[in-house]
Specification:
This protein is an alpha/beta fold and 209 residues long. Helices cover 32% and strands 27% of the residues. β3 and β4 form a beta hairpin.
């Protein structure tokens, strides 16, 4: 949203300049090039209020000969600090992306466990369609993911302890049968009509009818 305003601002207010944040103290800084620029200051504040009325922003004004306007988005605290989710991610699809996105919305730092080829073969009696090194690189490329680790077994409590996990996310089909852990579990509904099983059956990669 701020990029749209800044682009419009540059052409409309030539007496002001725009500086990007380099210290993570504000999103952008508007600086007047001339002293006593009151009329434009009022006009700019009105436009800022209109541009950001649907978002949570702070606007700070300072005056030392010329005006400065600092604009900063106020971050809403997340429910958890560190969360963990895991999966095979064999044939990555939108359902996977959706659960990663929803999990990241709840936490500051998301760790994802990707099942190794050996674990999948042990659990399902067959090797995955996509090898481990490709699956883990796909998950690493997702913008919602902060860290990716191999999932070598189903011991969730070990991961909770080792990585200081505050909560785990999982699909709601695990309700009532997810292994007990010392942290809360957030259940998410799977994206309707999307699953790896359906994709594999469509591609004739699953022997089940």
């Amino acid at each position: 949203m701020e990029a749209v305003f800044v682009e419009k601002f540059i052409s409309k207010y030539p007496n002001w300049s725009v500086k990007s944040d380099s210290t993570v103290t504000f999103d952008f800084l508007l600086v007047s090039k001339i002293e006593g620029n009151d009329d434009e200051l009022i006009a700019i504040l009105s436009e800022l209020n209109e541009a950001f009325k649907s978002a949570n922003y702070t606007i700070e004004i300072s005056n030392f000969k010329t005006y400065e306007i600092k604009v900063k988005e106020v971050q809403t605290p997340k429910k958890y600090r560190r969360m963990y989710t895991s999966g095979c991610f064999d044939i990555f699809h939108y359902g996977h992306l959706n659960i990663l996105k929803k999990t990241k919305e709840l936490c500051d730092y998301l760790i994802v466990g990707v099942s190794t080829d050996e674990l999948i073969e042990k659990e399902k009696g067959r090797l995955p369609v996509i090898p481990f090194h490709e699956r883990i690189n796909v998950v690493k490329a997702i913008k919602y993911v902060d860290e990716v680790i191999p999932q070598v077994d189903k011991n969730k409590q070990k991961v909770v302890d080792e990585y200081q996990i505050d909560a785990i996310s999982v699909g709601d089909d695990w309700k009532g049968r997810f292994p007990a852990t010392s942290c809360p579990v957030e259940y998410f509904a799977y994206t309707e009509n999307v699953s790896s099983t359906i994709l594999k059956q469509t591609l004739r990669l699953d022997n089940k009818s």
